[in-house]
């Protein structure tokens, strides 16, 4: 099954709303200049919550083909939960995607697979696609336990989804030791785990789910190394952190083909 490659830029806690507008405009120009084929690669930006309205206005106003998403979502539908941002709020802002279970949230906010799973369900019920992040830390990798560790995160995070739903989801394999470190996994490292994820999904949910699911690699991806990673059969795109803040880098990543 042909899966449309997806390049998602996670801005993390960077850029105010004016800077966000400038970056999206420059990205749109860069991709237009290079005749980016939006049918070939889907481009998504994932700004902080406070920038979403500005990005929405720009994307709608200029009819840009760039999609956008949020970095997190509440497990609650709404009500007395101070500080929470609900799926309903995000879908009203035109978000297509929600990143859940990023390693920084698992690490600094103690997010468990159970919580990540609940957030993924909230996103999907709100009409958005969750980008479910999984991946091992350095100790686990050095112990050679990276595949079983990551698969157990996949099992926990995808619990309760139907095969049809899984076919439309996105999983991002992001080895924690490669995030923001400049230490990129080799294309073979990425393929090893991405293919194990797809095979686990095949066992649990069947062929349709496994063949439809898009699996991204994330961890120090740049324009210079994206080509080798994207050649791998089970890598359907990248979740990009630092390089997504630089228009030439992210433009180059989106135009890897
Ligand atoms: C990320 O934050 O998801 C990420 C992959 O970051 P970086 O590209 O900076 O390693």
UniProtKB/TrEMBL annotation:
NCBIfam families named in the record: tim
Family, as annotated: Belongs to the triosephosphate isomerase family.
EC number in record: 5.3.1.1
Active-site residues per Swiss-Prot or TrEMBL entry: 102, 174
Entry annotated with the keyword Plastid: no
Name under which the protein is recorded: Triosephosphate isomerase
Family annotation (PANTHER family): TRIOSEPHOSPHATE ISOMERASE (PTHR21139:SF42)
GO molecular function, one term: isomerase activity
Positions annotated to bind substrate: 10-12, 180, 220, 241-242
InterPro entries linked: Aldolase_TIM (IPR013785), TIM_sf (IPR035990), TrioseP_Isoase_bac/euk (IPR022896), Triosephosphate_isomerase (IPR000652), Triosephosphate_isomerase_AS (IPR020861)
Main function: Involved in the gluconeogenesis. Catalyzes stereospecifically the conversion of dihydroxyacetone phosphate (DHAP) to D-glyceraldehyde-3-phosphate (G3P).
UniProt keyword list: Cytoplasm, Gluconeogenesis, Glycolysis, Isomerase
Annotated compartments: Cytoplasm
Pathway: Carbohydrate biosynthesis; gluconeogenesis; Carbohydrate degradation; glycolysis; D-glyceraldehyde 3-phosphate from glycerone phosphate: step 1/1
């Amino acid at each position: 099954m042909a899966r449309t490659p997806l390049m998602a830029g996670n801005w993390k806690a960077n850029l105010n709303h004016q800077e966000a507008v400038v970056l999206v405009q420059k990205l749109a120009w860069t991709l237009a200049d290079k005749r980016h084929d939006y049918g070939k690669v889907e481009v998504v930006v994932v700004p902080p919550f406070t920038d979403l309205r500005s990005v929405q206005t720009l994307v709608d106003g200029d009819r840009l083909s760039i999609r956008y998403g949020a970095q997190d979502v509440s497990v609650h539908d709404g009500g007395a939960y101070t500080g929470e941002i609900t799926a309903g709020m995000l879908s009203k802002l035109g978000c297509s995607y929600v990143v859940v279970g990023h390693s920084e949230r698992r690490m600094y906010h103690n997010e468990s697979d159970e919580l990540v799973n609940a957030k993924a369900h909230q996103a999907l019920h709100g009409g958005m696609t969750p980008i479910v992040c999984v991946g091992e830390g350095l100790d686990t990798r050095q112990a050679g336990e990276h595949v079983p560790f990551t698969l157990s995160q996949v099992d926990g995070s995808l619990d309760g989804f139907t095969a049809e739903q899984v076919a439309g989801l996105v999983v991002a394999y992001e080895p924690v030791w490669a995030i923001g470190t400049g230490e990129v996994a080799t294309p073979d490292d990425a393929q090893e785990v991405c293919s194990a994820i797809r095979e686990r999904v095949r066992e649990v949910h069947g062929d349709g789910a496994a063949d439809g699911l898009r699996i991204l690699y994330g961890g120090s991806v740049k324009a210079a190394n994206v080509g080798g990673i994207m050649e791998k059969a089970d890598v359907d795109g990248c979740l990009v952190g630092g390089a997504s803040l630089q228009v030439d880098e992210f433009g180059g990543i989106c135009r890897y083909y």
